[in-house]
Amino acid sequence: MTMTELPASLLRTLPGTYYTDPAVFAAEQERIFEQMWFCAVRGSDIATPGAFRTVRVGRESVLVTRNAAGAARAFLNICRHRGAQLCADDSGSVRRTFRCTYHAWAYDLDGKLVAAPNLVKMPDIDRVEYGLNAVHVREWLGYVWVCLAATAPSFTETVQGACEQRLGDLASVERYGIENLTVGRRIRYDVRANWKLIIENFMECYHCATIHPELVHVLPEFAGGYAAQYYVGHGAEFGPDVEGFTVDGSAGTAPIAGIDASQDRRYYAVTIRPQVFLNLVPDHVILHRMYPLAADRTVVECDWLYPHEVVAEGRDLSRSVELFDRVNRQDFDACERCQPGMASRAYAGGGVLVPSEHHIAGFHDWLRTRLAG
Ligand code: FES
Ligand code: FE
């Protein structure tokens, strides 16, 4: 579809209750976040056997760790004895076992029950049967993705497929070697807004000219308001006076080896439903993970990833980090300004989508289908 073929009639958004009603949020947790692949942690956050992070996925706390062989493992963070939360900390490290602080049941790094006081007097306890509840795990792009569904959807079709559809082929993302990049900076944003406002904002660029002066300077075509994400394979080109993807358009750091000449001086944005935004620029990659916590609260963890040597040599990353940190704050401020409006009678029937935002209607169709399923 070209810009001249955009639909003439305006489309309506979701009604306000979709952004405020705890029942809608509960349905989203059950039918979206607990069913789909969820990008949980950066692999380097659990660099060694026994290192762990706990993250919220839907209604569950999930414990993500590495076993003795170095393979990622993920479990529901619940002791099988009486249901105590197994790990209370957000992150940490154990030597060989996770030990419950209530009655001291201990589980190895593969989730098997390996010790329990007086277990010899309870021969009927099957140590595998009463091991931790494992969830599906995949590592891709250097991130650990988990899925809580009994049968996980195809990772190839859903996660990798989203990149393929957006960029035209999977090689266009794999060339960046994201799994080998190093986290140069991580910022965690606690956003008082529904996760869908954040996704909708990320998908459109109608707001760019108003709230993102620095981004529009670097990517002048964003002033037109058309979302680069809609056009398959399109990357927004840097302005002629721009040297790098930095807050003032000055030069960035060394480009990532292996990217294609066509990817130089361009910015690509990909939405991987339901909770990942991926941004590709020549010298770094920015990956956002959303953790929806309530109908009106979403934590966003954003990683700036660079070639290892760029971080190891202590290169100045401040100007490249500052660009998207500003963009994030500008976006999240806008989302927080909309959140109270979702509960207003003025928005009971929803709002409208102007033509340049019409692909957001596709997101709404997808959401309705998931919730009905
Ligand atoms: Fe964990 Fe009893 S609840 S050992
Ligand atoms: Fe924005």
Write the layout of secondary structure elements.
Layout: E1 11-12, H1 22-33, E2 38-42, E3 51-57, E4 60-66, E5 72-76, E6 91-93, E7 97-99, E8 106-108, E9 113-115, E10 136-140, E11 143-147, H2 155-167, H3 171-174, E12 182-191, H4 195-203, H5 208-211, H6 213-218, E13 236-237, E14 266-272, E15 276-281, E16 284-294, E17 297-306, H7 308-312, H8 318-342, E18 352-353, H9 360-372
Antiparallel strand pairs: 1-18, 2-11, 3-4, 3-6, 4-5, 7-8, 8-9, 10-11, 12-17, 13-14, 14-15, 15-16, 16-17
Helix pairs in contact: 4-8
Organism: Actinoplanes auranticolor
Cofactor: Fe cation
Protein name: (2Fe-2S) ferredoxin
Would you give an account of this structure?
The structure is a single chain. The chain is an alpha+beta fold and 373 residues long. It has nine helices and 18 strands. It has helices at 22-33, 155-167, 171-174, 195-203, 208-211, 213-218, 308-312, 318-342, 360-372; strands at 11-12, 38-42, 51-57, 60-66, 72-76, 91-93, 97-99, 106-108, 113-115, 136-140, 143-147, 182-191, 236-237, 266-272, 276-281, 284-294, 297-306, 352-353. Helix 4 (195-203) crosses helix 8. The two termini are 29 Å apart. Residues 79, 81-82, 84, 100, 102-105 line the site of FE2/S2 (inorganic) cluster (FES). Fe (iii) ion is lined by residues 201, 207-208, 212, 327, 331. Residues 39-146 form the Rieske domain. GO terms for molecular function: 2 iron, 2 sulfur cluster binding; iron ion binding; monooxygenase activity; oxidoreductase activity, acting on paired donors, with incorporation or reduction of molecular oxygen. It comes from Actinoplanes auranticolor. Keywords: 2Fe-2S, Iron, Iron-sulfur, Metal-binding, Oxidoreductase.
